[in-house]
Every structure is written in structure tokens, then in C-alpha cells.
Design a protein that fits this description.
With 90 residues, the chain is of the alpha+beta class. 36% of the residues lie in helices and 22% in strands. Strand 3 and strand 4 form a beta hairpin.
């Protein structure tokens, strides 16, 4: 019997993909927003594809801010852009 693969929705393109293909952005219990590569950090999470266009769409529509229920600093968006750039090269 095959195991069920967890699916999550990208906040940019709104497509459902396997959880391992997405980057998790989490608002921790202390209110800090950060990236979670292990998927284990406690807090409210939202997901993005490794596509820079999805990041631009999510930033323009404030989808991540609505999902995490908190403002997101430009530093977090910059870190996401760097991670996506690195993922596309590697």
C-alpha cells in the first residue's frame, strides 16, 4: 500500500503540490517570521513554490501576510528570493 503524499497549496500560483517541493514560511509562536526548511518549526505556516514568479505574485497580493496574519518584512522576501535563486541553480 502506497503512503499518502502530503499536499500543500502555493500562495503564489495557488496550485497544490507535494509538501517537499515547496518552501515553508512560518510565523513562530514568538511572532517572528522565518523560513522553515525542515517543516518542523512550531507556528502558522504558508507555502511557496521555488518559482520567483510565485513569490512576486504572493508579495503583490499580500497572500503570505494574510495567511500568516502578520506583516512580513522586506528582509524575509529578499531571503526567499535568494533561496529560490539557489534552488534553481542547484
Amino acid at each position: 500500500m502506497q503512503r499518502k503524499i502530503p499536499q500543500r497549496q502555493c500562495m503564489g500560483c495557488r496550485e497544490r503540490r507535494p509538501k517537499q517541493e515547496l518552501i515553508r514560511v512560518v510565523r513562530c509562536t514568538d511572532g517572528v517570521v522565518r523560513l522553515d526548511f525542515g517543516g518542523k518549526v512550531n507556528g502558522r505556516g504558508a507555502y511557496l513554490c521555488c518559482n520567483p514568479e510565485c513569490l512576486k505574485r504572493a508579495q503583490k497580493s499580500k497572500a503570505l501576510e494574510r495567511s500568516l496574519e502578520t506583516p512580513i518584512s522586506q528582509e524575509v522576501y529578499d531571503l526567499l528570493a535568494r533561496e529560490m535563486e539557489g534552488a534553481s541553480r542547484g
